[in-house]
User: Fold these one by one.
Assistant:
Number 1:
Amino acid sequence: MKSPFDAANRRRQRDELLHEIATGLWLTGAALGWAILISEGLRLFLGFGGQP
């Protein structure tokens, strides 16, 4: 016999999975953003590129 909590447990598991996916995507975007920011700062600081 099904427990009355089965649907709630499935919903909670689905929500946790979606939260983990969203967190992973957010952290990946944040890491890429910082990498771009640091690399562009170093490029400008070291004098590569920019206006001739």
Number 2:
Amino acid sequence: MTRLSVSSSVQLLASAQTSTGAIPASTVHDVYQYGWLRDGSWCAYALDRAGRRDAASAWHHWVAQTVLAHEHRVDQAIAAVREGRVTGLVMMPARFTLDGQEEIAGEEEWPNYQTDCYGFWLWAVADHIRRGGVLDDQLEAAMRLTIRYLLAAGDQPCYDCWEEHPATATPPRWPRSRPACVTRERCSTMPPPR
């Protein structure tokens, strides 16, 4: 078994990143050629910690662009929560194609609804900014949209992080919700929307 060093691990993450900033869950398994918000945010956090701020920033901007391109889906999800018709099909996905699109449904259902990944991205991008990343208009707009989504849908039952137990979908618990809460406090210092 090959043992990875910190530097080789960081290099692996950086080399897997696409020119648009997306980080695939795996470079060797076709089924994982998606950008998962939680997984990629962990990768961006590692890149930030390793001094690769530009690579971390590229990830966060890819997420921001992707989330903002799906603002209509946030509106649909919030309406579904209000109307009591929440399903995995109307809520925001946990993963996107590497070009920022929603995946096309295949023959086998693969659950794609997890609210905690949005809270985790908020924590990761806030940490990136705290470490010297720039809070520009695109990131701020995406953070605000994500907070709006989580305020409406963050307490809805969703799939577990491994997407394996649809019958045991559970509501977010404190550890999964905490990143959004911490970030909301940090984001409260952002100027009001224009």
Number 3:
Amino acid sequence: MHGDSPYDPTDGDWQTLVTFFSPTEAFLLRGCLQAGGVPAMVADAHLVQTYSLLAGAVPVRVMVPERLMDQAEKLVDAYQRGDFALPDDEDPPSVDAPTDPDTSNRP
């Protein structure tokens, strides 16, 4: 799947780190793991999205290489603490309107 890390046999087989019922949550965690230096992939997301009635029976898996499981678990703890959260207290940047007088006469 697009965005999944490439497989490196020296890191061991892919192992399930966590499961989610929402593919969106799985993709968010995959990005956080990759940002933290741990290769990660999401499995079964398309199955859950295609057959939504199976969502409760077939969770979406976030998988990491076996040898990096400890590092991945630490990153999951950081994710759950909110270490990857974006600040909510900042105002968005303002965009000024163009001040070129030639643009004001155009239809």
